[in-house]
């Protein structure tokens, strides 16, 4: 650009002395060119370029006698694009606007110094100056669009290819973790053990969000069971810590059932990036137990733990999504495949029965037996589809899902189903509820298929982090050693172990079997599970 304006200046004026302005413009451009990233020298150089260009425009316009009055400024004014475009491409919109203002003032001053009557009064000078100011404004405010246009487009990754890459990385990372675990409950229990060494207390818990403005208890310790406050819209240190992402110390318990007395509570938010993923609650039955030094020590432990817990929760979500999607896929394939084919087989048997000649009683009886067996298999498939599609509704809860399943299977098998539910408003983690539902489904299915029972008792007690599901029947127990029934028991045991629960299988008096899965420590009150062992009729 310097070479261009130098050539135009000589052509328009024919006076080599006007090249002094080009030399001065070269000196003014040096700071912005040499120190282009300096916060002071680079902008100062661009302002110097604009000022020199404006002053030179008036002098060159006056010296260009061979060009129409004032239009000689066109020889120098194209250089205005250099500082304005540079500022725009560096995303300095405010600086660009200031450069335009300085350029306008410099043009007026340059015209006045060159002779106000001959230059400023000429329409050509005003037109040339206005034209380049307008072009400079366009450059300044349209450069962002230009920059995006010139920037090469990033290739859009294919969704499945990207998912494969991320899952491969996740598998590698999971194998390298201590204990190779991504279990939120296990990580939470380990965190409480670390905190016990830093700040001993009487009660502690790790909570995470479950949706709907509520929290779920991932792990807790304490001399006795604690009913923590799990509502985020309540007036509590828990809600304040979640909203502000800052530790909160309170002089009252964060449990809804605490008897009172002197208490110190400390609530530490677990923050990963800008998102709160959980809370740690520490309590002790003493006043002033959490001074700033203790709070600092606790936050030094919970800080790194937040990232570990977030990874575990995200992995849990991915695993749940993948499991649910696979269950739905299997349900669709069974419904559209083997179930439809069995129905057609049933229709074929019906047609064969209808066309039998008279006297073929033995064949008719065999066809009726075969038709009954096909009907039984179709019924089993429909119940399997119902089991695959059953999920815990986040609004209905675990007890409602178990009740719906037990009622459906009980109706199909002619069982009388007796329900006993005691469910808290607090919720278990979604993955834990899903596993408990599958265990209950397997126990109910075993009772329906193998026990030969007339009655089914289903008890569901949920008071997070404690839960107990019991399924009892009055059938023949485990006298038959059916392989498929034993395989179902193995699956239940594996599911219980996955959520750190305990599976118990005991005979029921006077007949039948009781299958129970227990999670956590029971509350200090009589358990409703005793009702399932009551004499029949009570």
Automatic annotation (TrEMBL):
Name of the molecule in the record: GAF domain-containing protein
UniProt keyword terms in alphabetical order: Kinase, Membrane, Transferase, Transmembrane, Transmembrane helix, Two-component regulatory system
Domain of life of the native organism: Bacteria
Residue span, Histidine kinase/HSP90-like ATPase domain: 431-523
UniProt xrefs under InterPro entries: GAF (IPR003018), GAF-like_dom_sf (IPR029016), HATPase_C_sf (IPR036890), HATPase_dom (IPR003594), Sensor_HK_TwoCompSys (IPR050482), Sig_transdc_His_kin_sub3_dim/P (IPR011712)
SUPFAM superfamilies (alphabetical): ATPase domain of HSP90 chaperone/DNA topoisomerase II/histidine kinase, GAF domain-like
A Gene Ontology cellular-component term: membrane
Gene Ontology MF: a single term: phosphorelay sensor kinase activity
Pfam family, one: HisKA_3
Transmembrane spans: 18-35, 70-89, 96-114, 120-143
Transferase in keyword set: yes
